[in-house]
Amino acid sequence: MKPNTRIFKPFHHLVIPVFHPLVVRDALAMARMLGGKVSLVGLVPVSPEAPISAEASTARRVRAELQSFMKGLPLYRAPQVLVSRTPMRDLQQYLAEDPPDLMILEWPQCFQTMGCSPEELLIKPVCDIAIVRGPWPEVIQRALVPLRGGPYAELALRFCLALPRQELMAFNLRNSNAPKTVEAPFRGLASILPNLPEVTFKQIVSDEPVQTILNETHHADLLVIGASARSEPGNNVFSPIVDQILSEADCATVVMKSQDPLPIIWTGKDGEMAGAQAISVLVDKWFAENTYHADEFDNLDRLLEIKKEQGVSISLALPALNEEATVGQVIHSVKNALKDSVPLLDEIVLIDSNSQDRTREIAAGLDIPVHIHQELLPEYGARRGKGEALWKSLYVTQGDIVVWIDTDIVNIHPRFVYGVIGPLLANPRLQFVKGFYQRPLQSNERLQAGGGGRVTELTARPLINLFYPELSGVIQPLSGEYGGRREALEQMPFYSGYGVEIGLLIGIFEKYGLSAIAQVDLLERIHHNQDLEALSKMSFAILQTVFRKLENRFQYSVLEDVNKTMKLIRHEAGSYYLDVEEVVEQERLPMLEIPEYRLLHPPK
Predict the structure, then answer these.
(1) Which site in 87, 221, 401, 578 is 20 to 30 Å from 245, CA atoms measured?
(2) What pLDDT does residue 111 have?
């Protein structure tokens, strides 16, 4: 298996201004921990009465020293030296041409250099800024981050999450006379902190915030604070609190200043807007750490070794309805690579929805067990839809890990299966993995790149962003290639129709949290696209599913009296008419609640 190189690096491009005389030890040490590519900019200030050309030799010396600093650092661009009577203005222009993700300044050097006070940079920053006061620790055992809310707090938390450390403690300070309600800008952060298991959070009541923070630094390696924490209105650089903490903190300290402005008002709607972007900290981190690529798992022998070490079994269930054109190639490709050549799969079964073509005959001819889902568990009735087939596939499979892929894939490749299995074997904490891919839209004989996934982009993702923003990093919530651990899937209710995918995704999230979900890039998937009428019915079912989930969340029914029939517009013989079709998304109980299932799969 290829080494896992996914690290949360929200700061891909770092700029370090180097003031003459050159002191950047702590800034460079921070950059090495953060990762990303680095640009060094030397600043040589010139007094008003001196000619700029007189500093040519100084510029050459600075360039040479900058080159020596770059050893062991990935380079974004070659070191540059700015010789100027207005170095801050020139640096601001340099940054504006290609804004970095973060600029690192070293304190107090950046405030003491001749004519180079960084106030101009800090008042109207063109990028996010970190000001470091060392000495920077070689290893961060314990990091602290006080959080009030707003863009500076979000940036401080994002910064801490990007650093390697053993413990991260976040705390919110509240005055003893303040209302016990959560301050508006902090509500966004308060909502995501429970989904960050590596963060220990506590709220501290104190009427002496500075002393409280300083006391916390006695047993820490790093403190990260916002530049204007508790500052008075109009103070654009540092508040008195930050000045005192920089001078007195026992550990290395970083002051973060976001290019986004602080709220003018910290209450009401304005305050809420200040914390509206907090969710991006969680989603960005999840996306970076839990997004895989199928190529990471193309060493099938290594995957098999991991599977044996963990002692797990793996089942592949193939839902099908009239797929005689593609089902044979799907089975042949996967079976040959992942069962016959390398026994990664313990079983492959076809779950048919009563096809009227040769789908079942083809599968049986390839020695694949075939089940008609309408005939399984007959005492519970038979419902229409793919979700019904997936639900009943749990009943007829045995694996500790269950994977599903659709049987209409034209460009089938074993990666559609091992790509989903890989993250589950690589990370035992994961419960559910979704595939994603490029989906060309096939129209007659032409393929339109990126044209597929219309229901995803027009219905599913807008709903997720609106009601489940933590899941907004999931690229294709409706993809048909996914899998999970049986012990999680058997506890999930299944929607019988088109809502099954989004229902499972939300269900896993609600029970296990965002960190239990991953996604994997399966490159490209070509299949037979559906017409707009079918997509409209799919959207209707997905809407019902999401509203059902919201009903469970808020314990309030809204769908009882909602219409569940669609008036489909038809056009025939030059005239329009309405055709009524019922589209009801029904829910199945978790399979673990079915007695017949528990006889075959007793709870562990």
Answers:
(1) 87
(2) 66
Among 50-59, 206-215, 507-516, the minimum mean pLDDT is found in 50-59
Alpha carbons within 13 angstroms on the beta-carbon side of residue 380 total 22
Q: Mind spelling out the 3-state secondary structure of 426-452? A: HCCCCCEEEEEEECCEEECCEEECCCC
| Three-class SS state of 350 | strand
- Does residue 266 register a pLDDT over 50? yes
Closest of 127, 135, 136 to residue 32, by C-alpha: 136
Which letter, b or e, does each residue of 464-477 get, where b requires 16 or more Cβ atoms within 10 Å of its Cβ? Answer: beeebbbbbbbbbb
- Interatomic CA distance for residues 127 and 232, integer angstroms: 23
pLDDT for res 393: 98
Q: Is 58 exposed, middle or buried (0-12, 13-18, 19+ CB in 10 A)?
A: middle
Beta carbons of 255 and 131 less than 8 angstroms apart: yes
Question: Which SS3 state, helix, strand or coil, does residue 489 take?
Answer: helix
Radius of gyration of the chain (CA): 29
Q: Tell me, what's the pLDDT at 316?
A: 98
- Residue 114 CA to residue 190 CA, distance in Å, equals 43
Which helix (H) or strand (E) segment holds residue 319: the answer is strand 314-320
Q: How far apart are CA 385 and CA 382, in angstroms?
A: 10
pLDDT at 577 over 60: yes
CA–CA dist 22, 2 (Å, integer):
40
Model pLDDT, residue 155: 92
Per-state percent for the chain, helix, strand, coil, to nearest 5:
40, 20, 40
Q: How far is CA 514 from CA 144, 169, 593, in A?
A: 24, 20, 25
205 strand-pairing partners: 174
For the residues of 13-73, what is the DSSP string, one character each? Answer: EEEEEEETTT--HHHHHHHHHH-SEEEEEEEEE--TTS-GGGGHHHHHHHHHHHHHHTTTS
Distance between CA 375 and CA 356 in Å, rounded? 15
> Alpha helix locations (H) across 238-277?
240-248, 268-274
CA atoms within 13 A on the CB side of 518: 28
CB 275 within 8 A of CB 150: yes
DSSP letters along 107-150, please? TTHHHHSTT--THHHHHS-SS-EEEEESPPPSS-SEEEEE---H
Distance CA 223, CA 253 (A): 5
* Beta carbons of 408 and 326 less than 8 angstroms apart: yes
Model-wide pTM > 0.85? no
Which pairs from 352-356 meet CB under 8 Å and 24+ separation?
Answer: 352/320, 352/321, 352/389, 353/319, 353/320, 353/321, 353/384, 353/385, 353/386, 353/388, 353/389, 354/321, 355/320, 355/321, 355/322, 355/323, 355/324, 356/322
**Phi/psi zone of residue 555: left (φ > 0), alpha (ψ -120 to 50 degrees), beta?**
left
